[in-house]
Structure formats: structure tokens, C-alpha cells
Design brief:
Layout lengths: L42 E4 L7 E6 L7 E5 L4 E4 L7 E3 L8 E6 L7 E5 L14 E4 L7 E4 L6 E6 L7 E5 L11 E5 L7 E4 L5 E8 L7 E7 L1 E2 L4 E2 L6 E5 L7 E3 L11 E5 L7 E5 L49 E5 L7 E4 L11 E4 L2 E7 L1 E2 L2 E3 L17 E7 L7 E5 L2 E5 L7 E3 L7 E6 L6 E6 L4 E5 L8 E2 L4 E4 L6 E3 L6 E5 L5 E5 L5 E3 L7 E2 L16 E4 L7 E4 L3 E4 L6 E3 L14 E2 L2 E2 L17 E6 L7 E5 L4 E4 L7 E2 L12 E7 L7 E6 L10 E4 L7 E2 L9 E6 L7 E5 L2 E5 L7 E2 L9 E6 L6 E5 L4 E4 L3 H4 L1 H6 L4 E3 L5 E2 L18 E2 L6 E7 L6 E7 L4 E6 L8 E7 L75 E9 L2 E11 L8 H39 L10 H18 L28 H13 L7 H36 L13
Parallel strand pairs: 41-45, 64-71
Antiparallel strand pairs: 1-62, 2-3, 3-4, 4-5, 6-7, 7-8, 8-9, 10-11, 11-12, 12-13, 14-15, 15-18, 16-17, 18-19, 20-21, 21-22, 22-23, 24-25, 25-27, 26-28, 28-29, 29-30, 30-31, 32-33, 33-34, 34-36, 35-65, 37-38, 38-39, 39-40, 42-43, 43-44, 44-45, 46-47, 48-49, 49-50, 50-51, 52-53, 53-54, 54-55, ...
Helix pairs in contact: 3-4, 3-5, 3-6, 4-6, 5-6
Length: 1148
């Protein structure tokens, strides 16, 4: 893997701590993880500007700087600083989709969450019940309702924390389970179903009247999604009221729509339980909806009028508002506690997806609603400002108004969290929540490589996998490729400036990322061949259109709708290379909760523009022209002749759930006949694991589910180096098989149990890049421990060195004054600048070390591995890609030792002195739960500063793992030059020779100084005593004085300090010296340091200094040896008189 930056590039060798085995902690010699692979570290790189969907906010109103953020796919996040910093919570429990969060208003550490977002998208994830924390979200306990799947609201009694209500909506895709309003009076120990619907109806909204907690309002919601369709309402939906604290409920109807309804939001005015608003989704006109039983074509497939009435600038296909007299959808108000209602507006933007209603606690006529743009009314809902938070992402789901200050508003939506302090006039966006909902991820071949992908409702983007900035990867390092819902982004392998991308329903684009030029290249009847027949229906593209680059033909792209298209001219024209590969069913004939498609009048097929469509497409990287497809209506097909003929192979797959979504078709890169197929059947209300493999082009299949049964598989990737290794991304995270699907193990490390929609392996760097749907991009820089783990376990050796990826000599910099940024920012975690070398120990072994040699076998570096790393598990050592440092001189007390700097974190300053505990708080770390395998900053173990060795020349090296001095394994390693370096090969060699010459002279000089330091100590001691020694003749005393005088002349040339108390001071031997200093060893270090500070040819001035060192340092060593000869004669004279003076031999 190319190693880039995290800390200052001039660091010396630093031994790395082993990777974290649990989130937030570091592995120590005493706490190895049970599974060695759990010590792997994933980097969270963001971005956070394009944040993810927020489902709810829970604010502690006595101190509104404390609140909890419930996210649709990324767990819970907590702030105690009004969003200056956030803490990730609920990220290891499995399913991480959160529908709602509630906090006690008497104890901010008491928190409830309901899992499973209830916003009904075709991409919605699910949960497994209710959780409770009594320690501010540090730990969570499951409290029941496991088959609720989606919980839209949790409310706590305002004066009794043991009384909690849950609005369980139930499964979006099937009947039954935990549905309705549940109540606990014992803190969740037991639950009572107090408001029950039918098998298709659950609870949506719930409110306790602050003026009288015995009065409650709830809404019930009947809805169902399927593979093809949606029916967003029914007779089960309605508004209910309780006057006895939720024990009994009665339906309220007077003035509300009498027919079937869809999603309904409700809120009661804080000061009076008589003032209640309901936001109702009613029926649209007959025939409104997707425009056809199969959909297809641009703009088809909208929601019914009930799902869009009054929404200005809504999502594609939303119907225009109708008059209130004919359109039951809209806002209703009651002034008598729900006994009667009056429709005040038909505004209700896409309730299937939004349906959030909030009354200003201080003004019953000021209303806020979620939607496409936050809706705001100041006249009781008669008129609305339809985009009251215009500077914030349009899609708003969560709203909180400060009861003590109505100017203070907090909102959450598809773009994250934002705050207003002037009643929605201006907004402050929180760009420090890395919650992006990625569907796909790809990479290019730049150095460092870039990561590209598409985000739910947040466009298509590309950004770096590493930057030079020591703080990390910033949001601003990412650049937008295309708008809308983002999906596939692919960089042209022939021209890295050309990017292909897709944004919802086949909107495929080609763009020059450098100039911004772009054009739509969507296959249509106008640019495809052969021409469509007269009367042919438009192509049907999935919302997430399949788009790939051919692995065999550079410059060829393939796309799929209900047919497969191929282009060899960058999308200017397309060949249709398949027939319709779907079941081509008419969804108007498919019943959903009792209604056929053309009978549905509420949220009809919302979000599903077309069906059936091809959703997975792949070409064999082993055999050109072998294509596989999978559809959203359960068809797997193969062509072995470049699309001339196609064969359906679904019937060959045992246990295939009929009609299920084929999430992946993955041809093997190792064997032409092998293909893997995965199915995500949750849209059939089936949450089982489905994976198969065929070794004969789909003629037969066998299951590779092995030990998995309840993991819904989103994606599968075959390893690029080891055919036995497979990876899958599931609803709850990452799994790997080391035996071709015979068994699976979770790969956890510090990775949250977040949904993973795509896994990409960089072909050059051997890094794994994860597109998480809820926590942005995560990168595992070193796949070698997984790829080689099985072989390691089978080996007879107790110590095994893993293969080592290429290492980049990458310079980093601190150039943005980030120590003064405050706390409100996000920076993704960069990799270390050092090369990371990993090995595995089955148990502690003898003395461990690494020996690095060049291609000719010459020693370059020896690394002693400390005992703390000599423990069972996967361990890491870092090499700064430099030769051995020059030794340091142990100076006399008070002298200054040579060596490196003390490293610190990226940017930042040291904390306070502890006078006030916790003040100041450190700036946020880079990424989420970062771990630097190389330890701290520059310097550290092995010496730094002027003693540091030169960077090795780029090339191939050999790394050997030694146990008690004997090699147990050797691996090659390639060192890659920083791409910013502009020297020619000849210049680079000359530069290296100069610096190495200086380094060797410095090393020789320091070794000489080290040799004579004991003599210096003896001379200093005798100087204060010899005059009083009666046994020493005067002639010998005179001889000593002459030798001492000569020593004072010689020693300064080697940086040896004077006697204690004498004026002046030494530099510790080779640590650097001014140009006019007599310390020639220090001059060697100084000149070397100046040249090494820039990887460039030295100036004339530096070359003159280099020439001077080449002349003076050897001369000084000659003088030193001459002195040592005279000192030896003195030693012999002193010995005759009983005085010992030990003189070292001449320096070589």
C-alpha cells in the first residue's frame, strides 16, 4: 500500500503500537483481541460536508448545548457543546438505523432510541427494537420490541422517567410484528400494547400534551413497500386521542378526511392541549401515479397527489397542489382538543418521506414542517414559506424549537444538522458529522489515489485517499462531479480527467473534471443501435442504474436499463447488446395490501420510477465478452458471446427467493467459469442471507451462506490476490471468508456495524475502500493480513512476516493554521508517512528485529522490536524509509543530546497545565477513533533531527523478520518516490550520494567522539587533582598540561563539551553547528540537515560547505589520532606513578 501522511515527513523510525481491537482503545501487550483480525484499523476519511439523513433530534432543554442526533443509517451522535464536537455512539450493536431518540428532561444521561428509520424510502434500512442508555449513550441495553423494524417516535413522560411510549410502525415490507403504540411504566422491563392496528398498520406519530400529560395524541399508519411498488395508505391510518395517560384511545374524526389516509403527523401546542395540528396525507385523484405498469422514461413514476400536494420544487414527478376543497391532503387544526378539525392548507410535501410537524412552543400560529425545503407558517398554516432554510439541504426531517427562545431552531435532514438563532433567517451548518450515505465507490490510479462515489441525495463526488496536510483530509478536498442522488462514479482509465457518473434513473453523464465540461450520455432511442421498433416503450432505468467500465477493453463502458448497452466512444453512441432481461411484468396488475397498482391513490410507487430493471451488471475480468446481469425482479442472466445470446440461469440457483433483488453478480478474476450471486430479499420481508457460487458459467450453483443466515448481503467482492478470500458488505458491516465461502467471519476492528453498499480493492495499493451507507468512506490500507491469514495459521512457524505493499516517500505539511480553528471541523484520517510492516505471532517468541537490505543485499536498516510487540496477534512496525541514523553522543551532565523532536498530534498545541480540569479540551481527532500504527509524531525511537539518516533511493528492498537473530521470513518491498519530486534519476542519485557521504562522515565523527568521551571524563577529573599529587613528578605534570591543552583544541572539533562549569557548551556530537564553529562533526550534521530539508540539488553555498566538511573532518580525525598517540605516552608515564588514564585506540 502506498503510505502517505499523517505526521511530519522527517520523522525517524517509530515503532507502531498494535492496531486497536476495540473502538476507541489501543491494543496492549495484555489485551490482544480474541480474533487477531479485529486488530485491523480502518481509516474514516469522510466527507462530512455532504452529511447523511437525520431522523430525529433529542435536546436537553435545560442546557440545549446537550443533544442527541438520531441518524437514518449512522447510529447516534451526541454533543455537549452545541455541535462544536460530536461523539459517535451506538455503532457496535448491529443494525444502526435509528428512527427516533428521546432524552429525559430531568437527566440528560437517560436516553431512549427506537431503531429502524420510518421514512419509507426505497433505500430505507431497518432496526430490531428499542434501546436504553443510563450513562449518556456510553452503553446501551436492548429493551424489547424486536420485530418492530421501524420506530418513528419515542416520548417520555415529562415527570416520570419510567413511563415511556413507543410508536412502532412495523415492517415496511410485510405484515405483522410489533406494531402500534406501546407503553412501559417500569423503565422498559415490560411493555403493554395500548393502541393496536391491524397486521399492516402501525403507529407513526405520538405526542404528550405538556399542559396535561394525561392527554395524548397518536397517529396510525398503514403502508407497504414491495420490490416494485408502494401503497402508502389505507383505512387503518388515522388520528387517535387518549385522556388517561395512554391507557385507552379513541379515534378522532370530525373534519378529518373520511377516506383512506396515508402518513399523518401530529403536534399539540405546549401551552394548551386544545390546540392541535395534524398533517394528513389523503388520497390523490384516480389514475395519478407512475404513468404505466412498468414505468420507464424520464420523469415517470411519481408519487400520487397525496404524496406531493403543495410541494414547491419537489422531487421528480410530484403532482401540483389541488384546491383544498377537492384535495384532502394538507394541514388540519383543532382548537377543541381534537373534537373537530378544519383544513387550513393542502400543503404537505411528500409525507411518505417527511411528515414532521412542529408548533412553536410560544406561538400556536407559527408552524414548521419538514419536507423538500423547511415549511414555515406564521398564520396558523394558511400560508407557508416553502423553503425557510434555503441555505441548508432541502430535505428536512427533524425540527426542534427552543421553548425558552423561539429564535433558536435546530433541524436535521438529508444534509445533516443545522442551527438558526434568528428564526430561520440564517443558518449554521454542522459540517463535522461524517454520515454520508454512499451507494458506490471507485478509485483511480493517481498517487495518492482518489476515491469517487455517489451519495443519497447529496450528489456524486471525488476526493483524495490522503493529503499532505498533517491535520487530515478536509471536506474541501472533495469535489462535486454531478448533482442529484449520487450513485456510480467511474474515472476513465485512458484519461483521468474524464469521469463517468450516474444520478438517479439513468441520468448518465460524462464530465471533464479539470474544465467542468459535461454532457448527458444516457442511452435513448436517439443514440442507440439497433433502432427501437415503432411503438416501443422507453428504456426502464433503475434509480441506481448499473454502470461499469469494461475490465478487458479500456475506454469501453457498459450500462443497463431493462436492456444492456455498450459504448466504445465514451457514451456518444450505444449498442444494445441484450433483449429485455427482466420479467417485464405489469405492476398495475400486482396487488399491494389489497389494491392493484392502478388502484393505489396514496404515495403510489413513490421513488420507484421504473420496474423491472437491471440492477447488477458485470463482465468477467478473466474472459472478455462474458457478461452477467441481475434484476430487481429476480432474474439472473449470462451471455458468453459478448451479448449475442443470453441465458437465464435463475432456475439453476437452489433456494432462490422468487422475485428477489439481485444485489450482485460477481465473475471471478481467477477462473472464467466462476461467478458469485448475492440476493437482498428484504423488500420481500425476508431478512435471510442469500449467496451462491457457480463454477460452470451458471449452469449449476451451490450456496455459500455457510454459517451466516440473518445477514442481508448488499455486495460481494473477490480478493485481488487470493482466490480463497471473499468479502461481503451487509446491513451490519463487513465479513470475510478465507476459504471460498465455506465459512465467514466478521471483520470488525474499529469499523462500525454500518451498512456497506460496495467494496472496492485498489489494484495497485492493495487497500480496501468501503462505501458505507451512513458513515461515509472507510479505508483499510493493508489487506495483506487478511489475504495471508489462513496461510499464517497453517504455517509451522510461530512468527510470520506478511507481504508488504509499496510505500510512498510522502512529504506532509502543517500549512493551514489549524491549531486556531477551534473545535468545529472534521478532518479525515490520513495514513502514516512511514512504511507499515506487519507480522503475526502465534505466541511470544525470542528477541525480535527487522533487517532491511537493498536489492544487492547491502544492509540498510536494522530495527529492534520492543517486547511490548512480542505478543500473540498481528503486530506493526514502521520504517521511515531512511538508513540507520547516526549515533548520538552521551554528553556530560548538562550537555545537550542529539536526536529528534518530540512528536505531537497533527497541528494543535499542548493542553493546559491542569489548573482547571478538562480545560481546554483538545481539538477533535482526525477521522473517527483514529489509530496511528507508527505512534506519535516525528523523531522518536532511533533518533531524529540532524542525526537522521537520508531517505533511501526509490527501488526494491528486502525486509527480513528475525527471531534471535535468525530470519523466519523475507518479503520484498517497493519504495516509491513522492510524485512532487522533480529530480531526474541522475540528479537523484547524485543528491543521495552527497547526503550519504555527509551522513557517513558524521557517523564516523560521532563514533570518534563517543570513543573519546570516557577519556574526556578522565582528563576532566585529573585536571582538578593532579597538581596536588605528590607521587607524580613535575615533568609528568607538565606533560599532562601540554596534553590537556592539545585536547581542548582537538575535542571541540568533535563537539565534545568542556569540563563542568567551564564556559561554552557542546552540541552532543554531530547535532549541527554554526558555519564558524570549530565543531567539524557538527558542521557535517548541519550541512546534511540543510540539504535533507529539501529534496533538491544543493546550492553552490551548500556544496562549498560540503567540500569544506570533506576536507576538515578527515583532517580532524588525523589530528585526533596524533593526539591519542601523545595521550597514550602520557598514560604510560602516569601508570609508572600509580595513576590510571585509559586511552582508546586510534580511530579508523
Amino acid at each position: 500500500m502506498l503510505r502517505h501522511l499523517r505526521f511530519v515527513g522527517l520523522s525517524a523510525l517509530v515503532l507502531g503500537v498494535a492496531f486497536s481491537g476495540s473502538i476507541g482503545g489501543q491494543l496492549t501487550a495484555q489485551s490482544a483481541p480474541a480474533d487477531p483480525l479485529d486488530s485491523l484499523h480502518f481509516r474514516s476519511i469522510g466527507p462530512a460536508t455532504m452529511s447523511g439523513r437525520i431522523s430525529d433530534l433529542a435536546v436537553y432543554e435545560k442546557n440545549p448545548a446537550i443533544y442527541y442526533v438520531a441518524t437514518a443509517h449512522g447510529g447516534v451522535w451526541k454533543t455537549t457543546s452545541n455541535g462544536a464536537t460530536y461523539e459517535a455512539q451506538f455503532q457496535d450493536q448491529g443494525l444502526m438505523s435509528i428512527g427516533d431518540v428521546a432524552v429525559s428532561q430531568s437527566n440528560p444521561d437517560l436516553v431512549w432510541i427506537g431503531t429502524g428509520e420510518s421514512n419509507n424510502r426505497q433505500s430505507t434500512s431497518w432496526g430490531n427494537g428499542v434501546y436504553k442508555s443510563i450513562d449518556g449513550g456510553q452503553t446501551w441495553k436492548h429493551m424489547g420490541l424486536p420485530t418492530s423494524y421501524h420506530i418513528n417516535r419515542i416520548v417520555m413522560h415529562p415527570t416520570n422517567d419510567n413511563v415511556v411510549f413507543v410508536a412502532a410502525t412495523g415492517s415496511l415490507w410485510g405484515p405483522g410484528g410489533d406494531r402500534g403504540v406501546y407503553k412501559t411504566t417500569d423503565g422498559g422491563a415490560t411493555w403493554k400494547l395500548v393502541l393496536k392496528g391491524d397486521a399492516d398498520t402501525g403507529a407513526n406519530d405520538l405526542v404528550i400534551a405538556d399542559a396535561n400529560p394525561n392527554i395524548m395524541f397518536a397517529t396510525m399508519y398503514q403502508r407497504r413497500r414491495s420490490q416494485c411498488c408502494m401503497n402508502g395508505g389505507g383505512p387503518g391510518s388515522g388520528v387517535f386521542k387518549s385522556t388517561d395517560g395512554g391507557e385507552t384511545w379513541a379515534r378522532v374524526e370530525g373534519g378529518l378526511p373520511t377516506g383512506p389516509m396515508g402518513r399523518i403527523a401530529v403536534d399539540a401546542y405546549r401551552a394548551s392541549a386544545n390546540i392541535v395540528y395534524a398533517l394528513v396525507e389523503g388520497q390523490g385523484p384516480a389514475g395519478a401515479g407512475d404513468g404505466g405498469g412498468r414505468g420507464g422514461g424520464r420523469g415517470a413514476g411519481a408519487a400520487g397527489a397525496g404524496g406531493a400536494a403543495g410541494a414547491a420544487g419537489g422531487r421528480g414527478g410530484e403532482a401540483p397542489a389541488q384546491a383544498a376543497s377537492s384535495n384532502p391532503t394538507g394541514l388540519y387544526r383543532s382548537d377543541d382538543g381534537g373534537a373537530s378539525w378544519k383544513q387550513v392548507s393542502n400543503v404537505n410535501p411528500r409525507p411518505m418521506y417527511f411528515s414532521q410537524l412542529r408548533i412553536d412552543p410560544s406561538n400556536p400560529d407559527r408552524i414548521y414542517m419538514g419536507g423538500v425545503g423547511m415549511q414555515m407558517s406564521i398564520d396558523g398554516g394558511r400560508t407557508f414559506q416553502t423553503d425557510a432554510a434555503q441555505a441548508i439541504h432541502d430535505d428536512i426531517h427533524a425540527i426542534w424549537i427552543n421553548p425558552a427562545n423561539p429564535n433558536h431552531i435546530l433541524i436535521g435532514g438529508d444534509g445533516g444538522v443545522a442551527i438558526s438563532y434568528d428564526m430561520s433567517k440564517t443558518w449554521f451548518q454542522h459540517n463535522n458529522l461524517p454520515l454520508a450515505l454512499y451507494y458506490h465507490v471507485s478509485v483511480d490510479m493517481a498517487t495518492p489515489y482518489n476515491v469517487c462515489g455517489g451519495l443519497q441525495d447529496n450528489y456524486n463526488w471525488c476526493g483524495p485517499s490522503a493529503t499532505r496536510f498533517t491535520r487530515g483530509i478536509l471536506n474541501s478536498d472533495f469535489y462535486q462531479v454531478q448533482g442529484g442522488d449520487g450513485f456510480v462514479v467511474l474515472v476513465d482509465p485512458l484519461n483521468p480527467n474524464i469521469v463517468y457518473s450516474e444520478s438517479q434513473d439513468g441520468n448518465i453523464q460524462r464530465k471533464n473534471a479539470e474544465t467542468g465540461e459535461s454532457r448527458n450520455i444516457r442511452p435513448t432511442f436517439a443514440n442507440t443501435d439497433p433502432p427501437a421498433a415503432d411503438g416501443a416503450l422507453p428504456f426502464r432505468f433503475n434509480w441506481d442504474t448499473a454502470l461499469i467500465l469494461s475490465p478487458n477493453e479500456n475506454g469501453t463502458i457498459l450500462a443497463a436499463a431493462n436492456k444492456v448497452f455498450k459504448s466504445s466512444d465514451r457514451g456518444d453512441s450505444w449498442s444494445v447488446i441484450s433483449p429485455d432481461l427482466t420479467m417485464n411484468a405489469d405492476r398495475n396488475e400486482i396487488a399491494v395490501t389489497g389494491l392493484r397498482g392502478n388502484e393505489i391513490r396514496i404515495a403510489r410507487n413513490d421513488g420507484i420510477v421504473s420496474w423491472g430493471t437491471i440492477v447488477s451488471l458485470a463482465e468477467s475480468p478473466k474472459q472478455a465478452g462474458v457478461y452477467y446481469t441481475g434484476t430487481d425482479d429476480g432474474v439472473v442472466s449470462v451471455s458468453k458471446d459478448a451479448g449475442k445470446t443470453w441465458t437465464r440461469v435463475t432456475a439453476n440457483i437452489p433456494g432462490f427467493p422468487a422475485g428477489a433483488w439481485v444485489s450482485e453478480v460477481v465473475p471471478s478474476r481467477f477462473d472464467a467459469g466462476t461467478v458469485y450471486v448475492t440476493v437482498d430479499a428484504h423488500r420481500l420481508n425476508d431478512f435471510k442471507t442469500y449467496m451462491w457460487v457457480s463454477n460452470d458459467f451458471g449452469a449449476t450453483f451451490r450456496s455459500v451462506n455457510a454459517n451466516l443466515s440473518t445477514e442481508v448481503v448488499k455486495t460481494l467482492t473477490e480478493d485481488t490476490k487470493n482466490a480463497d478470500v471473499l468479502y461481503i458488505g451487509t446491513e451490519t458491516g463487513l465479513f470475510a471468508s478465507l476459504d471460498r465461502g465455506k465459512s465467514w467471519r466478521r471483520i470488525k476492528g474499529n469499523l462500525p456495524t454500518v451498512r456497506i453498499d460496495e467494496i472496492t480493492i485498489h489494484p495497485r495499493d492493495n487497500a480496501m475502500i468501503l462505501a458505507t451507507h451512513g458513515r461515509s468512506i472507510w479505508i483499510l490500507d493493508h489487506l495483506e493480513p487478511i489475504q495471508e491469514f489462513a496461510a499464517t495459521q497453517a504455517s509451522a512457524s510461530d512468527a510470520t512476516l506478511f507481504s508488504i505493499g509499496p510505500a510512498l516517500q510522502w512529504r506532509s505539511k502543517d500549512h493551514q493554521n489549524d491549531e486556531f480553528w477551534g473545535h468545529h471541523f472534521f478532518a479525515g484520517e490520513n495514513p502514516p508517512t512511514d512504511a507499515v510492516i506487519q507480522f503475526h505471532l502465534k505466541k511470544p517468541v525470542g528477541a525480535l528485529s527487522l533487517k532491511i537490505t537493498d536489492a544487492l543485499g547491502k544492509d540498510v536498516r536494522t530495527i529492534a522490536i520492543p517486547a511490548a510487540r512480542n505478543v500473540a496477534g498481528i503486530q506493526s512496525v514502521c520504517w521511515d524509509m531512511r538508513v540507520d541514523p547516526a549515533p548520538t553522543v552521551v554528553t556530560a551532565p548538562g550537555g545537550a543530546p542529539g536526536g529528534g523532536r518530540q512528536g505531537g498530534g497533527p497541528g494543535g498545541r499542548a493542553g493546559g497545565g491542569g489548573a482547571v480540569p478538562g480545560v481546554p479540551a483538545p481539538q477533535p481527532p482526525s477521522g473517527v477513533d483514529p489509530t496511528n500504527p507508527c505512534g506519535g509524531g516525528g523523531g522518536g525511537f532511533g533518533g531524529g533531527g540532524a542525526n537522521q539518516g537520508p531517505l533511501v533511493l526509490p527501488g526494491t528492498f528486502n525486509v527480513s523478520l528475525l527471531v534471535d537473530g535468525k530470519s523466519v521470513g523475507t518479503k520484498p518491498m517497493r519504495v516509491v518516490l513522492d510524485p512532487a519530486n522533480q529530480l531526474s534519476d541522475t540528479q537523484r542519485k547524485r543528491y543521495y550520494d552527497i547526503v550519504m557521504d555527509l551522513h557517513q562522515m558524521q557517523t564516523r565523527g560521532v563514533e570518534a567522539a563517543r570513543a573519546v568521551m570516557p577519556l574526556h571524563t578522565q582528563m576532566t577529573d585529573l585536571a582538578g587533582k593532579i597538581s596536588g599529587m605528590a607521587n607524580v613528578p613535575d615533568a609528568v605534570k607538565t606533560q599532562f598540561a601540554a596534553v590537556q591543552k592539545e585536547w581542548d583544541t582537538v575535542r571541540v572539533k568533535f563537539g565534545v563539551p568542556p569540563a563542568i562549569g567551564a564556559p561554552g557548551g557542546g552540541r552532543g556530537g554531530g547535532g549541527g553547528a554554526p558555519a564558524n564553529s570549530p565543531d567539524v562533526v557538527g558542521k557535517a550534521g548541519n550541512v546534511k540537515g540543510q540539504i535533507m530539508s529539501f529534496y533538491d540539488m544543493p546550492s553552490t553555498s551548500l556544496m562549498n560547505q560540503y567540500a569544506d566538511v570533506r576536507l576538515t573532518l578527515p583532517k580532524a580525525i588525523v589530528e585526533l589520532n596524533a593526539f591519542l598517540a601523545r595521550a597514550t605516552a602520557l598514560s604510560q608515564a602516569l601508570a609508572k606513578n600509580g595513576v590510571t588514564l585509559t586511552v582508546p585506540p586510534a580511530v579508523k
